[in-house]
Amino acid sequence: MRQTFLLLICWHAISCSFPHYPKKYEKLGVLTKDTLKEIKNVNSNNNKVYVQYLGCNNLLIKFKDETILFDPFFSNNRGLKAALGKIKFKEGYFKKGSWFVNRNNNSFSKINAVFISHSHYDHLLDLAYLLEKDSLPTNALIYGDQSTKNIINNFIKNRKFNNSENFVYNSKFKNKNWIKISNNMRVLIIPSSHAPHFRHIHFMKGHTDSMYFNNFKSSTQLVKANQFKEGKTFAFIVDLLESDSIIKYRILIKGAGCEINEGKIEDELLQDKKIDLAILQIASANFTNCYPQNLLNQIKPEKVLLTHWENFFNPYSPKKIKTVNATNFNYFFKKAKSVDRDLDSLKLSDKYSLPMPGTMHVYEF
User: Fold this and answer.
1) Which of 20, 60, 262, 279 falls 20 to 30 Å from 285 in CA-CA distance?
2) Is 103 helix (H, G, I), strand (E, B) or coil?
3) pTM higher than 0.70 for the full model?
4) Is the link from the previous residue into 292 a cis peptide, with omega within 30 of 0?
5) What is residue 139's DSSP assignment?
6) Is 317 helix (H, G, I), strand (E, B) or coil?
7) How far apart are CA 193 and CA 219, in angstroms?
8) Domain residues for 9?
9) Structural domains counted in the chain
10) pLDDT tens, 293-347?
11) DSSP H helical segments within 48-160, as ranges?
């Protein structure tokens, strides 16, 4: 009862912070609107990486012939249902997301690995459907924590599930637990944390109840949103390789705004290669003290792609898209600018991108 009361109060407070169309960032060129632009030649070019933003923190990264999917989620559910009721997979939204993927010469059947940053529903709800319908290759690698496994356990079938906690980077050991996707790509899982959702209030903390999800047997059934507990939170480094010893391009992916270690990562991780592209979540970042400025000041990336920026509590429409509830974009960029000296000589859009869902970015190196 107390939790429901708190949810109602917080939901009212968040709703008072009305989402809006980001006109300012469209004028500045930061809002990238290539949603309807098809890239016909997504090929095995040695000097290009393709990064497709699919909404929330749902990302598809392709280099040469390898493709990785992060945090698969398309099924936006109405806000009150998410806060107080039950949510479900939505086939119509999934079809739109699939269209985004397929039109650029990609497909779920070509995905080599899936990584889950944490177990809130807006980071993995559609994974159950992908597994149930055998849309992913049977040998696709799946990484998530025990909470993720509890949620999708009835859909894993004969696939191998890898507990991310067994692969987390630890500076005390020389073996940094890099996950080799192929000779061209490797991934490192980094411990991270999740920002508060509103001021100091943090929803759905803890670990999922395996008993509850034992009854989650159809990917299309209704499930309580508040049962998708956060579990462990991870960030990722993705290296694109020329050989085992030569890193051509390095990407950092933050699935949640964080305060861990004052928002930074271990300095040791930057010794062999700097971060070229930082993919950072913007939602709720204004409720943290030192994110993203401490991280940006440390890694100094050449490019920044911002995720989880749109209001996923409403059906997606490119003409009606609005910002996520209770997130102060101006404050985020103010903190970023306070440490990003590149912006003294560059336009904001030269470095930062706020992509519409479906947008494919191509980074050359």
Assistant:
1) 60
2) coil
3) yes
4) yes
5) T
6) coil
7) 28
8) 2-364
9) 1
10) 999 999 999 999 999 999 998 887 777 899 998 889 999 999 999 999 888 888 9
11) 79-84, 91-102, 127-132, 146-152
